[in-house]
Design a protein that fits this description.
The structure holds 2 protein chains of 2 kinds. Chain A is mainly alpha-helical. Chain A contains 13 helices and no strands. Chain A has one domain. The two termini of chain A are 35 Å apart. In chain B, α1 packs antiparallel against α5. In chain B, strands 2-1-3-5-7 form a 5-stranded parallel beta sheet. Chain B is 37% helix and 11% strand. Chains A and B meet through α2 of A and α1 of B.
């Protein structure tokens, strides 16, 4: 495949689109939380206000160069991942990258965060990041098994092909109707990867002062807010591409991705938090078991 | 204690050249608008006033619809809420917390204890007027103010931020000598904080004629460089 001007434009445009959708996903998350708690919730542009305000702080407290680079890695990993996630009308470099690259790229932000937080030398931050990496170790195993199963089912690791196959056959060929057990395991793993309750071990406000975010202020916290909107977008769009046939057009695409995200968010605000060891035990037991059963169905 | 009263002193505003281009200040106005609509608060629950904050945050009054949400560390926060009497031991922590916040930062004193000591007026261990030690943007008087009053106060602060009038954080840099003098009066001349306020004032060009003075000289003579804490298991 040749790199054309169109591809370059798509690679630039896709993260921007992802960021805007991600902001609305953050808004939806906060609105749902408010509704569940019988509150009104934040206004429409609240996520944007937060980010502009944080970047507009007048004194920025940096703890050194790795602290700065860590945040860039955390956001950059997701920016790179967006170019590999096809949206309606734009494929970017998805056909060249594929699922395996995407799985790697979604791990980069956690590692970047670990570097950045490490330099802050705050014990709460270090505890938070060790918990974040532990939970990454936990949810990555079902996540990789699910990705393997999907790739085996569609005999391709190319997201463009996977989406095209699902869209050609209609609902009966969607991942969710072909491999429902894997889809449940995938939802479980996605929920754990979002770091929301009950898997919220590393962002524990009352316990370790929001963990990795403890020394982040101003533009660093702003970077984390940007990262969060990318994180929500990446997780839900990846799930939609693997199991719900991607987006035929923008309306179904947005409906599906917001709908998928609403499930873990609604569950999240009804539950308290697990302990770290409980989380690892839970995630290595149930979603892994479901994913293995799902793979057995796919492979028979 | 120095006798100068800072409550009426205006902050040195650098003269801004009036520009004819109507879009010249759009960005600054956008940032101040966002600042007013997104406030992360750090509630330093020193006294009984803290009990009025949970109802202000939760379903009955819901601060989040105004863009106000609680944060847990000073680095992330914009507003420092001092909710009640400040004992001298607490005041040290309040000052440490205040200095670690990123500017622009705002301080709100809730309850009458922060205004004049309230019912602790005769106490030997209570700081009477909070704004002798850190600049306070807004007081919400009452013993204790109801959640409506707290939200009303926060809305007044929002209006001040929107028009760029809430600049009292600059006072701390410009009149550091005054605040440090009052702090030394309470805590003794060995008082020092980990945050280098004079250095910050120089870096961000917030120095005023009163940043340095007799009290900062005392600080310089006793200041020990920060050392990393010893690792212990």
């Amino acid at each position: 495949m040749q790199v054309t001007l169109l591809t370059i434009m798509e690679v630039i445009l896709m993260p921007i689109v992802a960021f805007i959708i991600g902001l609305f996903m953050v808004l939806m998350m906060r609105k749902l939380a408010a509704r569940l708690q019988r509150r009104v919730g934040p206004p429409l542009f609240q996520p944007l206000f937060d980010i502009v305000k944080l970047y507009g702080k007048q004194t920025q407290i940096s703890h050194g160069m790795i602290h700065d680079i860590g945040i860039i890695m955390a956001v950059g990993g997701y920016v790179a991942a967006e170019a590999l996630l096809p949206v309606p009308g734009m494929d970017g470099i998805a056909a060249k990258g594929g699922l395996i690259t995407l799985a790697y790229l979604t791990m980069v932000p956690s590692l970047g965060l670990a570097l950045g937080v490490g330099q802050c030398a705050n014990p709460n931050g270090s505890i938070g990041i060790s918990r974040a990496l532990t939970s990454m170790l936990a949810y990555d195993i079902p996540f990789i098994i699910v990705i393997f199963g999907v790739a085996y089912q569609f005999s391709s690791t190319n997201l463009v092909d996977i989406i095209a196959t699902q869209q050609a056959g209609g609902f009966s060929t969607w991942g969710i109707s072909e491999m429902p057990v894997l889809a449940v395991a995938g939802l479980f793993a996605m929920h754990a990867s979002l770091g929301k309750q009950p898997f919220e071990i590393y962002i524990a406000p009352a316990e370790i002062a929001t963990g990795p975010m403890v020394e982040m202020g101003g533009k660093f916290l702003g970077g984390l807010f940007v990262m969060q909107s990318f994180q929500l977008y990446t997780a839900s769009v990846l799930y939609v591409s693997l199991f719900l046939g991607g987006g035929e057009n923008w309306i179904t695409f947005l409906l599906k991705s917001f709908g998928v995200l609403a499930i873990p968010v609604v569950i999240a605000y009804l539950f308290p938090r697990y302990r770290t060891d409980d989380l690892v035990r839970l995630v290595w037991k149930w979603p892994v078991m479901l994913a293995l059963i799902g793979i057995a169905f796919v492979m028979n | 204690m120095s006798n100068t009263d800072l409550s009426n002193i205006e902050v040195n505003q650098k003269p801004v050249a009036k520009r004819s281009n109507p879009f010249a200040n759009v960005f600054n106005e956008l940032v101040s608008f966002c600042r007013s609509r997104s406030m992360f608060m750090l509630h330093y629950c020193t006294g009984c006033g803290a009990i009025e904050l949970p109802p202000a945050m939760t379903s009955r009054f819901d601060m989040e619809r105004l863009g106000i949400q609680p944060m847990v560390t000073p680095r992330q926060a914009d507003i420092l809420l001092i909710t009640g009497y400040v004992s001298i031991k607490t005041l040290k922590r309040v000052i440490l917390t205040y200095e670690q916040m990123g500017a622009p930062k705002y301080v709100i004193g809730i309850c009458s204890c922060t205004v004049n000591g309230g019912m602790y007026w005769q106490s030997y261990a209570t700081a009477k007027k909070l704004d002798e030690y850190i600049p306070v943007d807004l007081y919400i008087a009452g013993c204790m103010p109801r959640p409506e009053a707290v939200i009303e106060g926060l809305q007044q602060l929002m209006a001040k931020i929107k028009t760029d009038e809430a600049n009292s954080w600059k006072k701390y840099y410009e009149h550091y000598d005054y605040y440090l003098g009052n702090q030394q009066h309470l805590f003794g001349n060995n008082w020092q904080t980990p945050t280098d306020i004079i250095g910050e004032a120089k870096t961000y060009q917030l120095e005023g004629p009163n940043t340095l003075g007799e009290h900062t000289k005392i600080l310089e003579s006793v200041q020990r460089p920060l050392e990393p804490l010893e690792m212990k298991l």
